[in-house]
């Protein structure tokens, strides 16, 4: 099973690569945007799998998912690092 956490695009390059940060944490990923059916812009949220951006999410949906992941982590005594 794969747990997909929304990542926010913070940088785009001309070669189709995207730099994204996971939540508000320090984790930053560089991934390919070649499989995305739609164009993404800086500030958009994406779902990543195996180094590829697979899906663009609406901001409200992404923020709600992040809130729920943080809440779940807190309920299980964990600290969310995103």
Q: Can you walk me through this structure?
A:
By secondary structure, the chain is an alpha+beta fold. The protein has 1 helix and 5 strands; from the N terminus they run βββββα. Helices cover 21% and strands 34% of the residues. It has a 5-stranded antiparallel beta sheet. The longest helix is centred in the C-terminal third of the chain and has 17 residues, at 59-75. The protein starts with 6 loop residues before the first strand and ends in a 7-residue tail after the last helix. The mean pLDDT is 88.
Q: In terms of per-residue confidence, which ranges show pLDDT below 50 for 5 or more consecutive residues?
A: none
What kind of assembly state do the chains in view correspond to?
single chain
Provide the structure class: alpha+beta
* Strands side by side in the biggest sheet: 3-2-1-4-5
In what range is the share of β-strand residues?
25-35%
Give the rounded overall mean pLDDT. 88
Distance between the termini: 20 Å
CA radius of gyration: 13 Å
Helical run tally:
1
- What is the strand tally? 5
**Helical amount:** 10-25%
> Biggest sheet, open or closed, and with what strands and sense?
5 strands, antiparallel
Overall 3D geometry?
elongated
Run of helices and strands: EEEEEH
List keywords for this structure.
1 helix, 34% strand, 82 residues, elongated, alpha+beta
């Amino acid at each position: 099973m794969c747990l997909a956490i929304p990542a926010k695009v913070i940088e785009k390059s001309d070669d189709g690569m995207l730099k994204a940060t996971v939540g508000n944490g320090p984790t930053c990923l560089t991934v390919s945007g070649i499989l995305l059916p739609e164009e993404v812009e800086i500030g958009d949220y994406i779902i990543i799998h195996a180094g590829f951006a697979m899906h663009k999410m609406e901001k409200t949906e992404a923020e709600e998912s992040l809130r729920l992941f943080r809440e779940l982590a807190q309920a299980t005594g964990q600290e969310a690092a995103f």
